[in-house]
Design goal:
Helices cover 50% and strands 16% of the residues. By secondary structure, it is α/β, with parallel strands linked by helices. The strands form two sheets. The protein has a six-stranded mixed sheet with strand order 8-7-2-1-9-10, with helices on both faces. Strand 4 and strand 5 (167-173) form a beta hairpin. Helix 5 packs parallel to helix 6 (95-102) and helix 5 (58-78) runs antiparallel to helix 7 (108-125).
């Protein structure tokens, strides 16, 4: 069976994630130790026993989710289910860094440091309260783009996450996004709601963060991945390290083309997608995008065992 490994993005974080994996697999525990050392702090203590408000801070959530995904992946490797079992890897926003680390293009330490910087840069790019994001449910991409264009009125309002056929997230200036919510409701959206996020990700307002990532990525070694990574901003596979570097910069302001990425992988013959890390958000999206693709999620030791024995 042709398979892809996919890695979740922000919003999946929960206190205690990955702890059972670290207790069951030394290789998983080593990931958390490596991330702690790279950041010079015990992020693992926050992940396992901290306060959810602190974990949800962008600068913490991003490296924490990557650490949890890589811990799950190392547990899979320990059971003989490694990168050689995948034709492609992909990740949702920050999950692309997890995908690159799993495929050997980035070290776990570099991924942790880059995500800590990325989280801080994205938070600092726009003062708190100036930006917002909203989920438009029941509208496709074209419908959401029309809503965003009407709502902008000289401000930034863009379709930022094309998650599945009926879920698009818009991002931009708070007033414009609030207008988008009302316009979407008038245009027949099933629901339109502001999201509890601290910054307007994946839109033009993130330009300062993109420049910060351009500088940071310029100093990091990126190797050719063991299997191609399906990049968010082009929704197709890339393997060239220079192209990966360029697309990671573009990703900060660019759209997360998740729906198209899933369809592209299915079009390449992928029959199963394994979500690796916290939560099952991507699994739900994949089912709504293409019901012919089998999905499974690896959150804990029982999931690892089930995957290895299947």
């Amino acid at each position: 069976m042709k398979r892809a490994f996919v890695f979740p993005g922000q919003g999946a974080q929960v206190i205690g994630m990955g702890k059972d994996l670290a207790e069951a697999y030394p290789a998983a525990a080593a990931v958390f130790e490596e991330v702690d050392a790279a950041l010079g702090e015990k992020l693992s203590a926050l992940i396992w026993d901290g306060d959810i408000a602190d974990l949800t801070l962008t600068a913490n959530a991003q490296p924490a989710l990557m650490a949890t995904s890589l811990a799950a992946f190392r547990a899979m490797e320990a059971e003989g289910f490694g990168i050689d079992k995948a034709a492609f890897v992909a990740g949702h926003s920050l999950g692309e860094y997890s995908a690159l680390a799993a495929a050997g293009a980035l070290s776990v330490s570099d991924a942790a440091r880059l995500l800590r910087l990325r989280g801080r840069a994205m938070q600092e790019a726009v003062p708190v309260g100036v930006g917002a994001m909203a989920a438009l449910l029941g509208l496709d991409l074209a419908g959401a783009e029309a809503v965003a264009a009407e709502a902008a009125q000289g401000e930034v309002c863009e379709a930022a996450n094309d998650n599945d056929p009926a879920q698009v997230v818009v991002s931009g200036n708070k007033a414009a996004v609030e207008r988008a919510v009302e316009i979407a409701k008038a245009k027949g959206a099933k629901r339109a709601l502001l999201l509890p996020v601290s910054a307007p990700f994946h839109c033009a307002l993130m330009a300062p963060a993109a420049e910060a990532m351009r500088a940071a990525l310029g100093d990091v070694e990126i190797r050719a991945p063991a299997v191609p990574v399906v990049a968010n901003v082009v929704a197709e596979a890339v393997s060239d390290p220079d192209e990966i570097r360029r697309l990671l910069v573009e990703q900060v302001t660019g759209r997360v083309r998740w729906r198209e990425s899933v369809l592209w992988m299915a079009g390449q013959g992928v029959q199963e997608m394994v979500e690796i890390g916290a939560g099952k958000a991507l699994s739900g999206m994949i089912r709504r995008i293409d019901r012919s693709v089998a999905v499974s999620a690896v959150n804990g030791p029982a999931d690892v065992a089930a995957l290895a024995s299947a």
